[in-house]
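Narrative progress, year one. The postdoctoral researcher (J.K.) led the effort to move from monomer predictions toward full complexes, under supervision of the PI. The following entry was the first complex the group processed end to end, covering 496 residues in total.
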Amino acid sequence: MRNIKLCIISVGNDEQSKIYMKLKKKKCEELGIECEIISFDENISKDIIIKKIDELNSNRSVTGIIVQLPLPNNYDAQEILDSVDEKKDVDGFTTNNLGRLLIGKPLIIPATPRGIMQILEDNKIELEGKHSVIIGRSNIVGKPIALLLLQKNCTVTICHSKTKDLAYFTRQADILVSSVGKKNLITKDMVKEGAVVIDVGKDIDYENVKPKCSFITPPFGSVGKMTIQSLIKNLEDFKHEDSFSYYE
Amino acid sequence: MRNIKLCIISVGNDEQSKIYMKLKKKKCEELGIECEIISFDENISKDIIIKKIDELNSNRSVTGIIVQLPLPNNYDAQEILDSVDEKKDVDGFTTNNLGRLLIGKPLIIPATPRGIMQILEDNKIELEGKHSVIIGRSNIVGKPIALLLLQKNCTVTICHSKTKDLAYFTRQADILVSSVGKKNLITKDMVKEGAVVIDVGKDIDYENVKPKCSFITPPFGSVGKMTIQSLIKNLEDFKHEDSFSYYE
């Protein structure tokens, strides 16, 4: 074991969440990282969840804490996320860590956006002055990736469910990042010749769009794989942060 | 007096800052709000500034604290801003308050963006589904106004100094917000017929652009005036916040 321990707080019975949590646990264990899933019933009081998180915050053996999203609708998710110590917040979803991202001095970058930036870097995709179009404005993917691409000197457009004539915007994209979760939302005619396409939400009509792209991520295995790798990097970054008083 | 007191921390001798501070003080006094400007030499240690801010944080008679920007280059401005209690942060520039803005649950909205949203509202400008183009990506104007317009269901594009072919983007704007600080950056040919134009940086060739616009703010007196009004509203909001323990 490597003195890294991840705890995942799970509330309720969302089937997709269970799959993601298993994937995280499996990946951690492959790498010799301890991973504990702490499960609560979906009607547990928020105070009990927050009390548990407080315990994990002060437990020196725990270096990373994830609150698995989505939480059932009866909770204020941000309130629970914000109870995680920002230096164990390996997802980067606390208000303060998102604020640091906004001001361009992140302590941690949420795993999916970090994974996307890694894919762009690994594939030597030039960003400066390029027009990036992001579809989706979530706090955990859309807004963070917009901020990161902005910091890399892209001109950035953010589209969403209320955007009129989505194709008008997507056709302008040098770099298109789609994080909606709607199969075949993006068809061949909506993509510019030579575009770079990152499919977070499995939104792209891959077979037909691919021939137009200079680079495209396949719907399975690419962004998801990079997200898990980024989560592991986040765990390792927090482990190695020397300034944390509780590792003295 | 109205039990509202603003303290403004001033470091160094920036002439423009002095003008802004005087304006704020004058406006406060007109409204019966106490306003104290606390000045430091430009080489004072950051610890002394932060110690002063700590004192103001715990002083019950002080309800709002501003660190006048820009600070001289030898300071980490964000570190000093972040020493302000988030419930006295009437500028809304602390990391945590900017994080709240990102997640769409602001405690406070920075004065200039709040003023812009007020101008749009007062003039009944429809936002949903409109394409807003923001020029400038500062943490205190560009990024906050982008997030606020996004929350009002605009499609939002953020341009900046590295944007290639700025006119290509500005010509698409239903709503154009320019916050660069470069006279006549935006000329007539760069604006769409019928656009709404908000001139934060005095960037617009006003006389020539005006005839094309359905609405435009003049370079003087509009956004600036609304910014001061929004600052006063922020001061009043913090005064009236019942949940603050130090007003018990």
